[in-house]
Amino acid sequence: MQTRHTCLDMWHGMRQFLVVGTSDSGKVAGEVNHLWPGNGTRDDPYVVSWNENDTFNARNYSPWRKVIIIAISGMSTLSVAFASSAYSGDLSSIRQYFGVSDEVAILGLSLYVLGFAIGPLLWAPLSEAFGRRTMFLTTFSLFTIFNVAVAVSANFASLIVFRALAGMFGSAPLTNSGGVVADLYDAETRGLAAVFYSCATFLGPVLGPIAAGFLGETQGWRWVEGLLAIYSGVMLIFNIVAVPETFSIILLRRRAAELSKQTGKIFLTNDDRHNPPGSLVKRLRVATSRPLRLLSKEPTVIVLAFYMSFIYGTTYLLLAALPIVFQQVRGWSPGIGGLAFISIAIGMFFATAFMVIINRQYARKSRESETGQLPLKHA
């Protein structure tokens, strides 16, 4: 009799809820047959989690699908970095066309990079609140539109305004694509994937001046900006077609909402059960304030932020200075002058090879560790 009561108690705590849920939008798993913990009530909702080998979980995508997603994310990041430096490759023709000085002409580069500082403070946290795909498609669409606006600008004032907006909205891949890498790969394999993805961040500034220099010599600066619009537009299409939402919390939240809609029961994710997302205003406030709290209170974040700002500052200082040194002082053509940036690519490839070796050592140390994590002295 006692065994029977025990079984009934267990049944009450882990009631079988058989549901076959199909998503009309394709954003929720096709069929879900699972023992959900809970009772489906407001006080005791069913807690939605990943099933074993769940194909809707981004971690369980096939290797080739992961490679395709990372490749598209990397090429999208490349397009943003490419657009930042391509402007400097044809700086002389822009200066002559609008009749402005070198100091004023460089504003098109400086304000674009300033957008890199503003945009990530918004797009990274908002992607965790509303989904990486939603934020990326929204911001990248505007990035493409502003690239078109730059190409058809009638005066220099409109050009630098549209460049600043393009930089701000185009900065989403610089931060969100790293989140996609974390969504797809576990801790052991994530480092290697991130190494190859991060190449796009610094390969773009190398390719930009070279391509823009040669194209600008023959077709003019508007075609250079038009190329950026075409490139970003193509990558936008690829993202729409081939890159799904990968953030685990958003996917589970959508699954819970779909199951609640189809069954009339209450389904929640484990995160939402303990920390309800609240109103839209609250979600926006929490999402946008988190980076500022981390930047002001976490020593590790502060040090890395200063380090990355130094690296980016040095890189874009070279982007502004080298065209002046080699094109104006030495008299090189824009195309030949852009070849000076190959030195950055050489250093990047050496760093990539080094990081591949180091990442393997880190993975081995993690496997040998009793906790399964990297020992503190190697962190």
From TrEMBL:
Keyword annotations from UniProtKB, A to Z: Cell membrane, Membrane, Transmembrane, Transmembrane helix, Transport
Coiled coil: none
Pfam family, one: MFS_1
Cellular component terms per the entry's GO annotation: plasma membrane
Location relative to the cell: Cell membrane
Topological category with respect to the lipid bilayer: Multi-pass membrane protein
GO molecular function: transmembrane transporter activity
Residue intervals passing through the bilayer: 67-84, 104-123, 135-154, 160-182, 194-216, 228-252, 300-326, 338-358
Domain Major facilitator superfamily (MFS) profile: 69-379
Similarity-based family: Belongs to the major facilitator superfamily. DHA1 family. Polyamines/proton antiporter (TC 2.A.1.2.16) subfamily.
PANTHER family reported in the protein's UniProt record: MAJOR FACILITATOR SUPERFAMILY, MAJOR FACILITATOR SUPERFAMILY (MFS) PROFILE DOMAIN-CONTAINING PROTEIN
Protein name in the entry: MFS multidrug transporter
Source lineage: Eukaryota, Fungi, Dikarya, Ascomycota, Pezizomycotina
